[in-house]
Write a structure and sequence with these properties.
The chain is of the alpha/beta class. It has a single domain, classed as Alpha-Beta Barrel (TIM Barrel), CATH 3.20.20. It has nine helices and eight strands. Strand 2, helix 3 and strand 3 form a beta-alpha-beta unit. The protein is globular and about 45 Å long. The model has no long low-confidence stretch (mean pLDDT 97). It binds pyridoxal-5'-phosphate (PLP). Pyridoxal-5'-phosphate binds next to strand 8 and helix 9.
């Protein structure tokens, strides 16, 4: 496992960008990885994790959390509305608020529980038809609707298209966040987290570079 190496690279990227140490959260993306590797990361002091599937998280995290109460688990995969209730019990943050029906559901749950996980709005910066997320042109209205429901997203998240320079997408996301007064920027994965840090990421989502290739689902 190369957790130490990735932490060092995160620290170097922060320093190179003139940013404060610790100003980015490294999410170790543990989806589909064997429990032994996750345990190893927890034992090495890694506290923040990313997961993609509600079912898998329900099966694996309650026991880990008992052993490591400081652990934080962030939802970074698509969230079905009918799993939202389970998700708010399982996750400290949801990075994939990507549609009005989900916002409505999360708002109801927040009202009933008196609290909500931290929320990031996923933006489809590449305007890819097959990809989830709010289109850039619709973001302002979506955020207004969220606030109208008493839902307060703290940041934006994007997954740039495959095989293109991610920079314009990261820049667009950073500009949109600044324009709307949002402080969180969830961007950057194994192949481009250093670029994302240079462009202001507050959360990078790194899986295979830490844990190795994922077994197939
Ligand atoms: C799986 C996943 C990651 C991690 O991908 P790696 O390339 O393994 O770092 C990051 N973000 C999202 C949204 C993912 O689904």
């Amino acid at each position: 496992m190369s957790l130490v190496e990735i932490r060092n690279r995160v620290a170097s990227a922060l320093a190179a960008a003139g940013r404060a140490p610790g100003s980015v959260t490294l999410l170790a993306v543990s989806k589909l990885q064997p429990d032994a590797k996750v345990l190893q990361a927890l034992q090495a002091g890694q506290h923040s994790f990313g997961e993609n599937y509600v079912q898998e998280t329900a099966a694996k995290w309650p026991a880990f959390r008992e052993q490591f109460p400081e652990a934080q688990v962030h939802m970074i995969g698509p969230l079905q509305t009918n799993k939202a209730k389970q998700a708010v019990d399982l996750f400290d943050a949801i990075h994939t608020l990507d549609r009005a029906s989900l916002a409505e559901k999360l708002a109801k749950l927040a009202q009933a529980r008196g609290q909500s996980p931290a929320l990031f709005v996923q933006v489809n910066t590449g305007e890819e038809p097959q990809k989830a997320g709010i289109l850039p042109a619709g973001l302002e209205t979506f955020l207004k609707d969220c606030r109208g429901m008493d839902l307060k997203p703290q940041g934006l998240m994007c997954i740039p298209p495959d095989g293109v320079d991610p920079r314009p997408h990261f820049q667009m996301l950073a500009d949109m966040a600044a324009r709307h007064g949002l402080t969180g920027l969830s961007m950057g994965m194994s192949s481009d987290f250093e670029v994302a840090i240079a462009m202001g990421a507050t959360h990078v989502r790194v899986g295979s570079a830490i844990f190795g290739a994922r077994p197939q689902a």
